[in-house]
Amino acid sequence: MQNFIQISFQQARSFYLVLILSVLVGLSACENPGSVGGDLTDPTSEVVQDTLIINGLTSVDATSYSGEQNFFSAGSFEDPLFGNMGATGYLKPNLPASSDTMKADGEMLLQIMYNLGQVSGDTVGTQRFDLYQINQYWRDRVLKVDDELTLGQKLGEFSVGSEDSLMINLSDIAPQWVDEYRTYAEDSKDDTTGSVDSTYKYEAHGLALVAQNSTKILPLYRDSTRFVIQHPEADTFDVSLNRWGYSLSRGSGSTFPQGSIPLHSTYESVLNFKELGIDRLDVQVSGLSRAILVLSENAEALEQSLSGEPSTTKRAKEQVAYLHLANPGGLPENIDPGAPLNSPTRLQGVYSAESETFRFDVTSLVENIIRNGFPEDREFFVTLPNNGVIKSTLIMTDDGQVPDGLKPKIIITSLKNIKN
């Protein structure tokens, strides 16, 4: 009992000691406006939000690469806003692996798989294709969107409906081409010098998927689209793609609403402006809280342009965009996907369906400009991801016909000293 009373007394004494110290610390903090957090309630400062319109937003042609991407496109779509688009897909198979043998009774099939959610056109309509032999040497790594390859004879045709995959029997529609491939495959089994591989590389050029009608454009998966060798009794095996890409022809004469400019994932039209305009503000790095670049879509024009089409007609929609600070003399290479993401010169913006805007957090970029000044020979460019899926949108400019709320702008939140 005595021990219990002694412990309780010690606990009570400790409690009152902590309470007294807490009161003293509180009084000290009230008397010292320079304590932690004091700046947030400093009556000589206030949080200010400035909105600056981006002047001179325009577009430039930086037509980019279309080969060796995650997707490659094929098909055609008469877009009522962006004009007629025709994409020809190119692909070439590898030779079979050393452990696989294509026998005389083996059939060759082409398996096509595409992203149904990123189709442009009537998603349930039927797109017909002609299958052609390519008649020239090409490298997918340097293939550009407007590079049309020379084609040879027509080998066959096929159609794609509402399904997201299709198996085409090439032995049925293009038997001569399959026999030529079989010869390369057989000869490569006994080749120890690499001469067959070299001959195949430079003399066999693959196939082209050419649209017959204009219903939709398919974004084909490069890893799931493949060739299949099928035997009646032996094993079936896959052959991956050796090369893949596409070319795009776009009809001329498209007109856009005043104050709107197109933005294409193919870089045929990328956004361009010279500066953010932060030199118009008195902002210090120590007071900068946040800086957001906002680009508004012309959602009304995009929606109304499809009002006369079947309800199943869609456009491929992008959820991100990229802001680049780059030398205008080095396009498109210095704004292509190889540039590091989220570096001071390449930032990712996210699309907001609620506000129908692309928003970029450019705080670090603005801080760098305030500290070091604007770099020479650099301009801003905005792109959609160039991944082989053909996508387009309309962005509002600073034109006088555009309401201020929809013009391109940068919103800067900062803490400013208001002491006289």
In short:
This protein has two domains: 46-61 and 256-417, Jelly Rolls, CATH 2.60.120; 71-250, no CATH class. The chain is 18% helix and 36% strand. The chain has 420 residues and is an alpha+beta fold.
Can you offer a commentary on this structure?
- The protein has helices at residues 2-31, 170-173, 175-190, 195-203, 299-304, 363-372; strands at 45-53, 58-60, 71-79, 83-93, 107-113, 120-122, 127-134, 151-160, 165-169, 207-211, 216-221, 226-230, 237-239, 241-250, 260-264, 270-273, 288-296, 313-314, 320-326, 346-352, 357-361, 379-383, 392-396, 409-417.
- With 420 residues, the protein is an alpha+beta fold.
- The protein has 2 domains: 46-61 and 256-417, Sandwich (Jelly Rolls); 71-250, no CATH class.
- The strands form 4 sheets. The protein has a 9-stranded antiparallel sheet with strand order 1-24-17-21-20-19-22-16-2. Strands 3, 4, 6, 7, 8, 10, 11, 14 and 18 form a 9-stranded antiparallel sheet that branches. A 4-stranded antiparallel sheet has the order 9-5-12-13.
- A hairpin with a 4-residue loop joins β20 (346-352) and β21.
- Mean pLDDT is 88; it is low at 1-40.
- This is DUF4270 domain-containing protein.
